[in-house]
Amino acid sequence: MKLSRFVNGWTLMALFLVALIVAGSVLIWSKSSRSQAIEISLVPGQEPVGNIYVGGAVNNPGFYPLYADDSIENVIRAAGGITDGADLSEVELTVSGADKEETLQKININKAEAWLLEALPGIGGVRAKAIIEYRQRNGMFRDINELTRVPGLGGDTFELVKNFITVTN
What is the pLDDT along the chain (169 residues), one digit of tens a residue? Predict the structure, then answer.
């Protein structure tokens, strides 16, 4: 008889613990699953006052929006920072207002890879390879007009690309 009371006591205790765990789980789930309204407040963004061209010794040269409270450090950081080993005197900043026409970003034929040279009008894979080979044999281009000395590139092709290229060291 003592054994049946012992088993019944443990059974009752186990059922009580299971009931307690289930009740606690339901309570926790009901409190955490109540959805409350979430309020999202967006701060009105400031409008750019113009654009700035960041070029020279930066990692990602190009045009960036310029805001009234931007610092030179913020603008250079937006352009990926200064390239390794360069100093600030090698960074080019050109501000253009909304009323001014933006100039095109030019391709530096002294540093451009083949895929970028192929983007130029009249330059395909063969001419891009010829430009790179010329650059490797003769060193950096000193002037964009030197491009006409590349085998396979004549005056007509130069006229197509001259407004899209530049040379810098």
Answer: 555 555 566 777 777 778 878 877 777 776 665 555 555 555 566 777 778 888 888 877 888 888 778 888 888 888 888 888 777 677 777 776 544 455 567 889 999 888 888 888 889 899 999 999 999 999 999 999 999 999 988 888 899 888 889 887 5
Tell me the one-letter amino acid at 120: L
Phi/psi of residue 58, each to 5°? Answer: -120, 160
Instruction: Classify each residue of 93-121 as buried b or exposed e, where b means 16 or more C-beta atoms within 10 Å of its C-beta.
Output: eeeeeeeeeeeeebbbbeebeeeebbebe
Segment 17-22 long-range contacts (CB within 8 Å, at least 24 positions apart)? none
Q: What domains, with CATH codes, occur in the chain?
A: 50-97 (no CATH), 107-166 (1.10.150.310)
The alpha-helical segments, DSSP class H, found in 34-139 are 72-78, 114-117, 125-138
Task: Spell out the residues 6+ positions from residue 54 whose beta carbon is closer than 8 angstroms to its own.
Answer: 61, 62, 63, 64, 75, 76, 78, 79, 91, 92, 93
Task: Determine phi and psi for 32, rounding to 5 degrees.
Answer: -85, -20
Identify the bridge partners of residue 92 per DSSP, sorted by sequence position. Answer: 55
